[in-house]
Design goal:
The chain is an alpha/beta fold. Helix content is 31%, strand content 27%. The chain has 7 helices and 10 strands. A 6-stranded mixed β-sheet has the order 6-7-8-3-9-10, with helices on both faces. A 4-stranded antiparallel β-sheet has the order 2-1-4-5, covered by helices on one side. Helix 3 packs parallel to helix 5. The protein is globular, with a radius of gyration of 17 Å. The two termini are 29 Å apart.
Length: 222
């Protein structure tokens, strides 16, 4: 069994998951603590699947996942996804304005939000609010996705390869935004990346996955 310790956000206990007859995760047991944790490994290792398990966009075939010491299946799934918000690898803005995209999540929950605040947190001028979201650059769209997640005021951000589709300049800008967010907000981050150097720039701790299994851990980065 995985021990539930103070300051542990998520615990995966002997978790396995298969898709289309192929094992994606195989007997994973690991704890993810508060702060910023990077899940690192090559493409196809199972990193994104692990991330999706953390807010029940997928459920394990075997084993259990807990959040703050409580089995994920005990949470209301919509409430969980408001508290543990996922930003996908490829930006997929809705048709409409940036403001409509940012307000989408809170509207689903029957509430509203101040559009300017999450935009500014993500490095976008409030003047972006009325621009068509799909007309923006990929880097700007990625920031809109981040702002849409932040509009829910989550406790945890799940980031799936947040800079994979960006050029170096846009990558550096998004990384700077993420570092600024951590400094300004009380939010924990679980970041999936294939880039070991990026994990060292953005994360306090590291989990390594290879071929659906735990690799050699590097629990504390310099």
């Amino acid at each position: 069994m995985v021990a539930i310790l103070d300051k542990v956000l998520f615990a995966l206990d002997e978790v396995s998951y298969a898709r289309g007859g192929r094992t994606v995760l195989d007997d994973i047991s690991v704890e993810i603590g508060e702060g910023a944790t990077a899940v690192v490994g090559p493409s196809g290792a199972g990193k994104s699947t692990l991330l999706r398990l953390l807010n029940r966009l997928a459920d394990p075939d075997d084993g259990a996942v807990s959040y703050r010491g409580r089995d994920l299946r005990e949470y209301d799934v919509l409430a969980l996804r408001r508290e543990v918000a996922l930003v996908p690898q490829l930006p997929a803005p809705l048709a409409g304005t940036v403001a409509e995209n940012v307000a989408y999540g809170p509207a689903l929950c029957g509430g509203g939000c101040h559009i300017d605040e999450p935009l500014v947190l993500c490095g976008l001028d409030p003047g972006f609010a009325e621009r068509p979201a799909r007309s923006l650059s990929v880097g700007e769209q990625q920031r809109v996705m981040l702002a849409r997640a932040l509009a829910l005021k989550p406790a945890v951000l799940l980031l799936d390869e947040p800079t994979a589709a960006l050029d170096e300049k846009a990558r550096d800008a998004v990384e700077h935004t993420l570092e600024d967010l951590r400094a300004r907000l009380s939010v924990d981050v679980v970041l999936v990346t294939h880039d070991r150097a990026q994990s060292e720039r953005l994360a306090d701790n590291q989990i390594v996955i290879r071929d659906g299994r735990m690799g050699r851990p590097t629990p504390q980065l310099a």
